Amino acid sequence: MTGTAINVAAVLAGGGLGTLVGARLPKGMRQTAMQGIGLVTLLIGVSNFLEFDNPLVPLVSVILGLIVGEALNIDGALKRFGDYLQERLSKGESPVSRAFVTTSLLFCVGPLTILGSLEDGLTGDYSLLALKSALDLVASLSFASVLGWGVLLSAGTVLVVQGTLTLSAGLLEEVVTEPMIAATTATGGILILGLGLVLLELKEVRVANMLPALVIAPLLVALAPLWPL
Asked: Rounded to two decimals, what is the model's pTM?
């Protein structure tokens, strides 16, 4: 869990500093920064999507995941949670819901999250998570400077997701394969692409309702011999 602890600390440090800096930036500069972050997020999504050579797997995963997510209304539940915290703690001055959902997905979807957590749990080598922590430090600082203190909440998501993967590493090693990781990363790329559209205010995509796709994607790969995807 050393790597996860470092990652959580990095998100808290970057988010805390970004919140302090952002409060001193002019509104126009914050808007321009948001557009820059949105463009980079789009590029990250495209890059992750290209990790897998069969687009049908992430496509089917997102469709099935969206059906499940819409039925459970995951997006609504997360927004209500963020709005509740915003109302109680910030008096409506910070877009907590967007900050929480956006950064939670960005920090927890990708090959470094999975591979780093498994390596930390199996061998105690947290070098990959240390690298991810450095990247997340910069990202959390950037997002918090624009979106506010809601970014700090994503540290809890990082702790839960990476901590679970690390503690379950012994079991997952026998099950998770590289194609399954690649399929999950590619599917996550679609979700991140949706986040980019939201940040650029081009389209209001209910990205959180697609989260079940991240579980469906590796299952489809595991069942590939039975289903010609």
From this structure: 0.71
